[in-house]
Each structure stands twice: as C-alpha cells, then as structure tokens.
Amino acid sequence: MTVRHRGALAAVAAGVAALTVATVVACGSRPAGNVGATEAADLAGAAPSPPAAGPSVPVTRGELPGGTRTVPPVRLVVPAIGVTATVDAVGINGATGEFEVPPSVDRIGWYRHGPGLEARAGSVVVAGHVDSATQGEGAFFRLRELDRGDTLTATGGDGVRREYRVVAREEYRKTKIPLDRYFARDGKPRLTLITCGGPFDAEARRYRDNIVVTAVPA
To answer: Mind telling me which residue stretches traverse the membrane in this protein (predicted)?
Structure first.
C-alpha cells in the first residue's frame, strides 16, 4: 500500500503487495455506492480541493499545537466487519517517498506526522492492506462494507478507548482522491480509514481505487 510524501497517499493502497487474480474476484468488488460524501467534506471545513496532478499532494499543511503530547492509536476494533487490529505508527520511506504501511496485512498504520487521538481538530489517518497474494485477507479486507452509523473503537497509547461513528464511505480513483482533505490538520476531529478497492490492474499489479471511510467521535 503506497502513499507518496507530499503525495503520502496518492496510492495509499497501490502497493498492496503482489495480488492474485483469484484474490481480486473476492475483494475487488465495489461498495454499494458512496454515502455521506457531503458530510465528509463538511468536516474538513472547506470546499473539496481539485484533484492533484499525479501523486503529489500536500500532507503536512498546518502545525500541530505546541506542547501537546500526541496520543497514537495502538488498537482498532470495528465490530461490523470483524476487525481487531494492532496499529503501528508509520511515516514516509525516505528512499521511495511512500507511506510505510506495516508489511503484515493484519496490522494497520497510523500516519504519525498528522494528528493523534487527543487532537481537537484534523484528520487522524490510518491505512491498511486489503489483501496480499502471500498473506491472504488484510485487516481492511471488508472496509468497503462499512456504512453510516457503524461504530468503531480506537484505543490510544494512553490506554483510553475512544468511540467513533461512521459518517461516510467513499471510493475514488487514486488519481482523483482529495488527499489534502483527508490528511488535513484542521477542520473537525475525525478518523479516516483508507485501503484499496475497485478493479484490479493485473499488469500494474495494483487496485485502481481507494476506499475511504470517515468516522467522527461518537
């Protein structure tokens, strides 16, 4: 699952390891349409940004509050899709410029250069693999099934469990996803979950789209 720096996501799910055609049949299906897109945009407090040209997108706009101790998510539970996953703090690979999603598909990554769970503004981003040819289904294999009203729990490094409610599920082509919105440090507090989806490009060995789920504090 790749995410470019200043493009730390244009392919947040593009590098989901090598995938087999058999796997595509199982997880390449589309969600039942987008839901909550307007509400997701409103949370960012600004009009949707035009798509970036290529994978380069701003992901470090804004400043984190000085003196604030960032609380990383360390565990995510999503009952509706059977997820209980460990969350690792990840950044950007200096050599490739990509978002370093954990190599084990049963774990997910939190973008440590953005807000933590204590933040009163901005998007807390977690991304995970949908599947792998060698490891099978990933933690976010069923992310596309989430719907408005579903709940999830993120436990922080401070031991506090925080409840969230899903307000939107959207699917974008990787070249059109408004990443500046989803990686923003401003706007209302929200949790953003990202994986890959849509049809699988066998030649490029990657999915065409990204699935984005937005949740707000319950």
So the answer is: none
Encoded tokens for 163: 């409840």
Burial of residue 133 (number of CB atoms within 10 Å: 0-12, 13-18, 19+): middle
| CA distances for 201 relative to 15, 20, 23, 113, 129, angstroms | 12, 10, 12, 30, 16
Residue 43: predicted pLDDT = 86
- DSSP tag of 35: B
Each domain of the chain, given as residue ranges in start order, spans 21-61+71-217
Fold of 21-61+71-217: Sortase; Chain: A; (2.40.260)
* pLDDT tens-digit readout, 173-195: 988 888 889 999 999 999 999 99
CA–CA dist 16, 205 (Å, integer):
9
Give the CA angle between residues 171, 174, 178 to the nearest 5°.
75
Residue pair 135/17 in contact by the 8 Å Cβ criterion:
yes
| Pairwise CA distance, residues 112 & 128, whole Å | 14
| CA 10/CA 210 separation, integer angstroms | 9
The pLDDT score that the predictor gives to residue 5 is 46
Alpha-carbon distance of 91 to 59, in angstroms, equals 11
